[in-house]
Amino acid sequence: MINVTKTFLPDQEEYLQYVRGIWERGYLTNNGPLLQQLEGQLKEYLNVDYLYFCGNGTIVLQIAIKALELKGEIITTPFSYCATSNAILWENCTPVFVDIDAATFNINAELIEASITPATSAILATHVYGNPCDVEAIEAIAQKHNLKVIYDAAHAFGVTYKGKSLLSYGDLSTCSFHATKVFHTIEGGALISNHPELDRKLHLLRAFGHQGDEHYEFAGINGKNSEFHAAMGLVNLPQVPAIIQARKEVFEAYDSLLNWDILFKPTLSADIEYNYAYYPVVFPSEAVMFRVMEALKVGEIIPRRYFYPSLNTLSFMPRQIACPVSEDIAARVLSLPLYVGLPYEDIERISRMINGHLSP
């Protein structure tokens, strides 16, 4: 069976060395020494001022919305994982969907201003597949209309744009360290900020809003993570360059083998160093996509309809807003298997099966 992804597992003994230290100290969670060590190394790796290691990539979106005290409407993308829009709903805000750019699959910055109303408080955009949004245009719009900007950078760890980490853009960026990501801590996520005025607030929001047993400042939540998850991050972080290189080799193999006369994939933004987080391909129709997916399944190859469905079509969304480009791409896209150690002969077999089922 070849799944769409396979978790990178580091040297077991190296991880167990950290686990033994946890056992000796008896300190399992609550901002422990390994967590603090990981936060320090991540800040250095990303060259950012403030980073908060949290429980997962969804809770950090909720904390970001809470920290910026957002109300009313938040402009967002329909082409993302449901965590993006769910976090907006959970924080009692209204997602206002703006369609995507047909080339990059990111929110179309040219369409944002038309959706701004007096109730709009922020833009929450996703760097889809780790491909940067038009951050300059979004920043200009936000400044013009006095809006906050949050980037869901769940896919963007290791990506640099114009020489700096993509996670350093916006008022806040969030990242996922789930086991399927380029860099993972089994479960985990992070809030990234360059604003000193948010430092203490973010630290407290992830820990129930209090320092010690008596000093309560506001209603926080449990967004903490454990020493065991931090240990996995400490072992994996030095491996990131090799992980990205191995993923790049798989990416380039697909590039050379697939039939680009019929298929297409997102156009990567200029001025980036990419992390090769996903390999999405778009088929000429949903019918062809289903035919290919079924053929791959017979061959025990499991791609993923990522992202599907377009979030604006979910029945529980408070506003039904048409996003024809997103709806079209979501119906035709598949993310192909991509992970460290995927053999070339399997990439070749997958590509051959796809190419063989493209004709009407």
Describe this structure in words.
Belongs to the DegT/DnrJ/EryC1 family. The modification N6-(pyridoxal phosphate)lysine is found at residue 181. The protein has 360 residues and is an alpha/beta fold. It folds into two domains: 2-238, 3-Layer(aba) Sandwich (Aspartate Aminotransferase, domain 2); 239-356, Aspartate Aminotransferase, domain 1, CATH 3.90.1150. Helices cover 35% and strands 15% of the residues. It is built from eleven helices and 16 strands. The chain has helices spanning 12-25, 33-46, 59-67, 82-90, 135-145, 199-205, 227-236, 240-257, 286-298, 324-332, 344-356, and strands at 2-3, 50-54, 73-76, 94-97, 120-126, 148-152, 160-161, 164-165, 172-176, 189-193, 210-211, 215-216, 272-273, 280-282, 301-302, 333-335. It has a seven-stranded mixed beta sheet with strand order 2-10-9-6-5-3-4, with helices on both faces. Strands 8-7-13 form a three-stranded antiparallel beta sheet, with no helix packed on it. Helix 1 (12-25) packs antiparallel against helix 7. The longest helix is centred in the last third of the chain and has 18 residues, at 240-257. The protein is globular. The model has no long low-confidence stretch (mean pLDDT 96).
Roughly how much helix do the residues carry, as a percent range? 25-40%
Structural class, by secondary structure, is alpha/beta
Structural domains: how many: 2
Mean pLDDT: 96
Low-confidence stretches: none
Major sheet size, sense and barrel closure:
7 strands, mixed
The CATH homologous superfamily of the largest domain = Type I PLP-dependent aspartate aminotransferase-like (Major domain)
Q: What does the overall shape look like?
A: globular
**How many E strands?**
16
CATH architecture of the largest domain: 3-Layer(aba) Sandwich
Instruction: Give the count of helical stretches.
Output: 11
CATH topology group of the largest domain: Aspartate Aminotransferase, domain 2
What series of H and E elements makes up the topology?
A: EHHEHEHEEHEEEEEHEEHHEEHEHEH
**What is the spatial order of strands in the main beta sheet?**
2-10-9-6-5-3-4
Please identify the top-level CATH class of the largest domain: Alpha Beta
Radius of gyration, CA atoms, in whole angstroms: 21 Å
